[in-house]
Amino acid sequence: MNILVINAGSSSLKYQLINTEDESVIAKGNAERIGIDNPLLTHKRPGCDPVKIEVDMKDHTEAVQLVIKALLDQDHGVIESMKEIDAVGHRVVHGGESFASSVIIDDAVIEAIEANTHLAPLHNPANMMGIRACQQVLPDVPMVAVFDTAFHQSMPPEAYIYAIPYEAYKDYGYRRYGFHGTSHKFVSMRAAKLLKKPYDQMKIVTCHLGNGSSVAAVKNGKSVDTSMGLTPLEGLPMGTRSGTIDPAIVYFLMEKEGLDIRGIEEYLNKKSGVLGISGVSSDFRDLLDASIAGNERATLALNVVAYHVKSYIGAYAAAMGGVDCVVFTAGVGENNPELRADACKGLEFLGIELDHAVNDDAYGRNGFEGSISKEGANVDVWVIPTNEELMIARETAALL
């Protein structure tokens, strides 16, 4: 099957056309600045230079039309007919408690996604724009919604309930949901396959570390805990997000800084994290350069993140009654050997020991996949590139 994977943002639309028989990427691209001045579509085919197309895209429907046109183009296209697109898989950020797995999109599903908009007001409306645009341009093609939150719906109540009045959960759905579920599922399944062990008999801690970061405990093929919560603000310190803090800081800051609700939201989501600690950057590469140059706050920011990753690994090993494998993935997890080493330092008592030469050698090797454990270590530690788009394509093909 040829699956068109769509990840729609408020003013962007990323896509990949994937052949699920050999799991190859036929083409991929990104429509940027939709409904804004200077819109751009960048279309890529394997082994070819990117094609940049500058043309008006007033809305997501026009963006999808342009994507289809690029896929069909005589010079840089990859298919001869729209009939070669067998299905569309959509990334949807928040499924709430409505969806514990991917689903074929129908009117009831759309209604449920829209009902969860209050839980992800920045994401679900954009995801819905992508769905409606594809329905308009490809009306006869089946479509599937793949939810960031679905993989974590297997968490037990003691892991997802917040210690606030229970009515907040019953009336508004306020609980831990977790995110990056597609990534955590992909790399945990991949780890089991690489280790040639039964997925449903393993205890795996997956560390998705990027500008947005989360850790998950995957026991016997099910997520039993994860660091992000009701929103992606909870958990690890991230690029610009604070991660978990004392809730009282919120109203202290609002009083001291004269912030309203929107102001404190921006403070915690866009001005905090490693950017807030370092005052340098939200980019971990910049922080590493600054740290090497002697910037103490940049060093502190990196140490804070490594410490919290380590804390989650230890906590999730306790929650699962042990750990067989730790996986590092996503932009920072795949490309920052220093952070991996610091996050694992002191966990030798759990059986986690790195081969530092292998870990360091992985730096700069784009797409590196491999073990970074010391030979004979009791716990396997791996670097595994994530592939959320492929996971979406697999889920879509499986449903159809």
Structure notes:
The chain has an 8-stranded mixed sheet, with helices on both faces. It has a 6-stranded mixed sheet with strand order 11-10-9-12-14-13, with helices on both faces. It is built from 15 helices and 14 strands. Helix content is 38%, strand content 18%. A hairpin with a 6-residue loop joins strand 4 (40-44) and strand 5. The radius of gyration is 21 Å and the shape is globular. Helix 1 (60-72) packs across helix 3 (124-137), helix 10 (284-292) crosses helix 11 and helix 11 (296-320) crosses helix 13. With 400 residues, it is an alpha/beta fold. It folds into 2 domains: 2-147, 2-Layer Sandwich (Nucleotidyltransferase, domain 5), CATH 3.30.420.40; 198-388, ATPase, nucleotide binding domain (Nucleotidyltransferase, domain 5, 2-Layer Sandwich).
What key attributes describe this structure?
2 domains, 38% helix, Nucleotidyltransferase, domain 5, alpha/beta
What's the structural domain tally? Answer: 2
CATH topology descriptor of the largest domain: Nucleotidyltransferase, domain 5
CATH class of the largest domain, named Alpha Beta
Based on the structure given, which CATH architecture of the largest domain is correct?
Answer: 2-Layer Sandwich
State Rg: 21 Å
* Tally of strands: 14
